[in-house]
Amino acid sequence: MYPKNCWYVAAHAHEITDQIFARTILNQAVIIWRAADGSIAALEDRCPHRLVPLSTGKTVDGLVECGYHGLRFDSGGACAMVPGQDTTPKNIKVQKFPVAERHALIWIWMGAADLADEDLIPDLHWMDAPGWAATTGYLHFKCDYRLINDNLLDLSHETYIHKHTIGNDAVADSPVMTEVIGDRVVRAHREMPNIDPPPFFAMAQGNDKPINRWQIAIYMAPGFNMTEAAFHTVGTDRTRDHFMMRPIHIITPETDHSSHYIWGLARNFQLDDDELNDRIYEATQQTFMEDRELLEIQDQRLRAEGMPKLPQLPVKVDKAPVQGRKLLEAMIQAEQDDPNFCLPPVMLADDDVVTQPFAVAAE
Ligand code: FES
Ligand SMILES: [Fe+2]
Asked: How far apart (Å, rounded) are the C-alpha atoms in residues 1 and 13?
């Protein structure tokens, strides 16, 4: 269901402290914490003594102490102390996972550890780059992570699910241009000239004047999505006067039917506006919870029907999600054929270029 030889996001960096943070990733329970020197550590959440989860315990001087008999482990998974004895047997060990901190995120590698190269971490610099301000959040979804990718690659659903925030009829009515880039990326681009602003855009613009809106859903397998969401008031200059938001949706599988939705909404305007930040947080959580409600119902139905292939009856808007699934399946298959297979990431978007309108007649 998912490739293992790639970096996944485990958490926002601010969530990881010197205390134990427990999370299941790709069906594997792990604990993550900051060791005494501030470095990030990740171990299997399983004490090798009597197999109790280490998350029953606590950290002491940068070491993890099991909650049952107090054995302590260091960030490399070696046993550092056994209460009541002077020696620490070398064979008492916990599996460790490669981790890294970048773009205000904690990354974890669940596959073959010797392949974990930090150069393979996707570039999500909008999360903490100069010129951008990112509002961040987290939601737990009780659904297969692939359903979330499908949802983010077909934004026609905004018209129906998100009419109180980012959707109106113009979204579903506008044609989409789909493009596959390399082995890992799909882009689905929509132009919406001279439309009424949906509520969220009217809030950002400060009025109800008509807008020229564009939207590019970008997917990188297995679970990285960025929506370039931009607009400018009709009559103003697209390049100079646009507002742009880049919601980054990081979908990390928890189990086969649950997912971590770790998000950051980067904007290039009103960078220091804390009040706007709060409003964006509320509106974004609300928007993603609308998706969650529907996707959890969909997952239940799919399970009841034995996980049939989707879409059952493809229509035009399925083009991008179908391409996304194909890339993902190829990545999983390649790893099954060659356990050392891993793909380099692809740049999601260019900061210096405001995407120009495409010829809608071509679609
Ligand atoms: S089960 Fe962990 S110390 Fe005994
Ligand atoms: Fe949505």
From this structure: 26
Closest atom, ligand 1, to C-alpha of 50:
1
DSSP code at position 96 = B
Ligand 1 atom having least distance to the Cα of 57: 2
Ligand 1 centre to CA of 302 (Å) is 40
Ligand 1 and 240: CB distance under 6 A: no
| Average pLDDT per 10 consecutive residues for the chain, totaling 363 residues | 97 98 98 95 98 98 98 97 95 97 98 98 95 96 98 97 93 95 95 94 92 96 96 93 93 98 93 92 94 98 94 93 98 97 91 62 36
pLDDT at 357: 61
Structure letter (DSSP) for residue 78:
B
What is the 3-state composition of the chain as percent helix, strand, coil, each rounded to the nearest 5?
Answer: 30, 30, 40
Residue 154's contacts (CB-CB under 8 Å, 6 or more residues apart) are 188, 217, 317, 318, 320, 321
Structural domains present in the chain: 7-118 (2.102.10.10), 124-362 (3.90.380.10)
Query: Closest ligand to 94 CA?
Result: 1
What number of CA atoms fall less than 13 Å from residue 71's CA on the CB side?
21
The residue whose C-alpha atom lies closest to atom 1 belonging to ligand 1 is 50
Say if CB 66 and CB 45 are below 8 A apart: no
Encoding tokens for residue 285?
Answer: 């959580």
128: DSSP letter: T
Q: Can you give the pTM of this predicted structure?
A: 0.95
